[in-house]
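Bench log, entry 3. Co-assembly request; chain sequences pasted below exactly as received.
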Amino acid sequence: MSESLLRVRGLTKHFPVRGGLRRAGLVRAVDGLDFAVRAGETLGLVGESGCGKTTTGRMLVRLLEPTGGSIEFAGRDITHAGRRELRPLRSDLQIIFQDPYASLNPRHTVGRIIAMPLEVNGITPPGGTNARVRELMELVGLNPEHYNRYPHEFSGGQRQRVGIARALAPGPRLVVADEPVSALDVSIQAQVVNLLRDLQRELGLAFVFIAHDLAVVRHFCQRVAVMYLGRIVEIGDRDDIYERPQHPYTRALLSAVPDVTRLGPAGRIRLSGDVPTPLDPPSGCRFRSRCPAARDRCAAEEPALVRRDGGNQAIACHFPESGPLGAMPANGTDAEVPA
Amino acid sequence: MDPYLRVDDLRVGFTTTDGVVRAVDGVSFSVERGRTLGVVGESGSGKSVTALAVLGLHDPRRATVTGEITLGGRPLVGRPEAEVRRLRGRDMAMIFQDPLSALHPYYPVGRQIAEAYRVHHPRAGRAEARRRVVEMLGRVGIPQPERRHDQYPHEFSGGMRQRAMIAMALVNDPELLIADEPTTALDVTVQAQILDLLADLQAEFGTAIVLITHDLGVVSQVADDVLVMYAGRAVEQGSVEQVLRQPQHPYTWGLLSSVPSLHGDADADLKPIPGNPPSLIDVPAGCAFHPRCRYAEQTGGRCRTELPELRPAGASGHRVACHLATEDRIRSYAEDVARVGVAR
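Structure output for the full assembly:
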């Protein structure tokens, strides 16, 4: 087994809240994550809003400081590394943001935006910064002649390409992509997913791909971690997660996705209620308040994330389910659609 | 049976300093009671502008609305504002995408719904309005409706707020419900709950629903009929089986093949539509889709110069606006399916 590029152990982020008259509390946004990403590997982090996936991404690139656990990148502990210690790693570790409108400085030309990480990290590419910027623009499918234009002159999809070029500029080994396509129209979304896939293969980049869209993650990631209320509930190889999900939450999540290849109401596993607040998560298993299979033990004891049957799939559940997602094909038949 | 809502040749134009923007340019459709029409398209295709036109919410100083809109036999375009106002909220209601900005943060949720009720029931007293609102909150699946009635929007979760919006829209038993991306801001498990709720309420009250969305998955699940819009025009419409199973417009093909799926080959590349949706200030001549269409060269230049009309295609009710001959379209599509395989 090859060496991990990124290894996270017990990663935790608690935000303190000072409530007016109420007692101060802690938002347990991320509460003890363990995972590893090998060089050139793509890991998807999926889950609903409030599950802590964005907070995790921000800790990985150290835009946020963890309150517990450790992050090891390329053999170095960067959990509490200061600015100066992080500087040599910044070019190895880059992030792509969700909002292509808010994440680009409107007063800078895209050429300058893409060159910024080179400048900041003191990198002088062979052939000069300008040549490198044009090369990057070409790589992400932008016209290099447009390096002198401003972000507002580009469409949403093109801006996201600028954000990607900027992340690739210093030659990173790991890219954290936080919902990189969710703000884009469907036809544009497919363009950007294909671009990221090509780049990942061509440059051998490792990715942590954060998304709520399970179908997009399936098309991009080799491994997938499903998060719920600050915890990983299931992690494994893509096909295991999508074809043989074992955690009741993963199964409910997958069956709730409306799929265009199936017509009519789907036979879903219905979850009642909303995600509870991370200020006061349920005792024991955090999913038990919505779990169709919850029993007494689930309230008393928090299930650990453990591998079963010696496979690659780890599940945090006392009563995992197996077998195909039985409810899914109900009423649905496959549509003929050109792919 | 006569359709409850009939829209005929609807056009909406906005005058700007750069010229007239034709946001909707000749769209026709109808919806019967108890049926759901899914309106799909990308941003700027005119979906929301169409919805606002039906509700009479365009500012007459800025927008020109022409064509015919008939609601239960009553024409709406050109009707005095005061009369449209009497219909809006009572006979037709709207659910907005973002329930947080559609609810007023300063007032309790129940009071806002009661206001919608009392506007159309001037003789109803406070107590009666409260009873009605609590009943509606319970009906849309909000637990402890009595207590929730007096809470503020910030005390509701996203899913609960959307339920409250639905309660507000349904409080006067409207016959037509327009839902503009009602689940886009919600998580999938909550989206599933809301779609189930809309289907249950529709079965109970026989409401006609216009569902505006960019999500073809949602459409495939809840719609009876589908209207595909591109640059302010209808490019394809028909039953959900016709449009999603035997799609005939190259834009519909492109949309379908660019959506990632949970089934089929995960390693296959997605097939995006090249290019970007056009700006409405500068819509391409001829067929607005021709710069992004793979088949535009097969019609001897017609696609570049001549606007294709929406014409019947194959089975009854299925209509397509494309210059490619029907046989060519069916053959091209079959070749596409054969080339890339049926399953994804």
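Chain A touches chain B through 52 residues (CB under 8 Å). The mean pLDDT of chain A is 88.
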